[in-house]
Amino acid sequence: MFRYIRTITICFFDILCAYFGWMIPFSRHPERYPLQYRYAKVRKLTLKVTKYMHVDIIAKNPEILKTPRTYVFIGNHTSMYDALIMLCLSEYPVSFVGKHEIRHMPFFGRIMKAIDAVFIERDNLKKEVAVLREVKLSLKEKKMSWVIFPEGTRNKNPEGPLLPFKAGSFRMAFDTDTPIVPIAIYGAHRPLNTKYRLKRFPIHVSFLDTITPDQFKQQNTVTIANHVQNIIQDEVKRLQVLDGHLLMMKTDKKKR
Question: What's the whole-model pTM score?
Answer without folding.
Answer: 0.91
